[in-house]
Amino acid sequence: MANWFSRIKQGITTKTKDKKETPEGLWYKCDSCHKIVPHEDHENNFFVCTDCGYHQRINSKTYLKILFDENKYKELNPELIAADPLNFVDTKKYKERLITSIQNTGLTDAITTAYGKIDGQKAVIGCMNFEFIGGSMGSVVGEKISRAIDLCLEKKVPLILISKSGGARMMEAAFSLMQMAKTSAKLTLLASAKLPYISILTDPTTGGVTASYAMLGDINMAEPGALIGFAGPRVVKETIGKALPKGFQTAEFVLEHGFLDLIVHRKELKTKVAQLIRLYSN
User: Fold this and answer.
1) Cα(157)–Cα(127) distance, integer angstroms
2) Would you say residue 266 has pLDDT above 90?
């Protein structure tokens, strides 16, 4: 026994020869029920837990792959990068935060817009990236959505926006808040042209995004269990000084209270979006 292990200050370690390390990313542990499954199986199930149905947060590239036919699309305005009009500084300079986010995510801002086909039907998709400064809405987000709507008007195609955001980007202050009015006004032009706008709310959709374009769809749909609201549950609870109802601000709660039209499982998302485009087109 003494030859098998030796004691060190931190505890007991076992000496082994030619130990094989488990490859990183081989397994996925569900954030909700903690079930462990092979990552490949999890990916094949659209990053949804096979046991409890928990929808893991995914980025724009994954959504575009799910929705666009054969993962073929043209990204729109990828060169747009946020400025720092206020020379904002909190725990670090906004310029530095932007550079770090770009380097860490490989993204240029909190939304990716693209043009392609969904089940053979041309459409424009804008999908938010939560990993880029919390999916916050700044000037670039507003401008990309505006340009996406311009393309919809030009091509006479529908718009799909997938929201995943913590709200307005505080580092841009009023410049960020102006995007609420800007995008809402642009969506009015889309409505006047009788072009459909489908809004998909994913976890989380909060703040100024909820208060503007996320809730202005001809159809507002959400993924199961998504957090949807203006202020977060903790802030609401502290403000009103009362316990919140069970399931408060989940997609199911919001649907029950009339703010959503339907909840769609991620593996059925493309089929449902394609069906709605055909319905509105006819």
Assistant:
1) 17
2) yes
Question: Could you tell me the two tokens for 6?
Answer: 């030796």
Closest CA to 161 of 183, 132, 191, 178: 183
Q: Would you call 115 helix, strand, or coil by DSSP?
A: strand
Q: Where do runs of H (alpha helix) occur along 106-262? A: 139-155, 173-192, 207-210, 233-240, 251-256
Residue 25: C-alpha distances to residues 13, 18, 39, 43, 145 (Å): 25, 21, 7, 11, 34
SS3 content of the chain, % helix, strand, coil (to 5): 40, 25, 40
Examine the pLDDT at 10 and tell me if it is beyond 80.
no
Is the confidence at residue 237, as pLDDT, over 90? no
Sheet of strand 159-165, all strands in order from the earlier edge strand to the far edge: 73-76, 111-118, 121-128, 159-165, 197-205, 219-222, 262-263
Task: Give the model confidence (pLDDT) of 60-80 as tens digits.
Answer: 999 999 999 999 999 999 999
DSSP characters over 35-83: -EEEHHHHHHTTTB-TTT--B----HHHHHHHHSGGG-EEEE-TT----
Give the model confidence (pLDDT) of 191-227 as tens digits.
999 999 999 999 999 999 999 999 999 999 999 999 9
**156 to each of 13, 75, 220, how far by Cα in Å?**
66, 18, 21
Task: For the chain, list the domains and their CATH numbers.
Answer: 24-56 (no CATH), 58-281 (3.90.226.10)
In order of 36, 253, 265, the CA distances from 53 in angstroms are 13, 17, 9
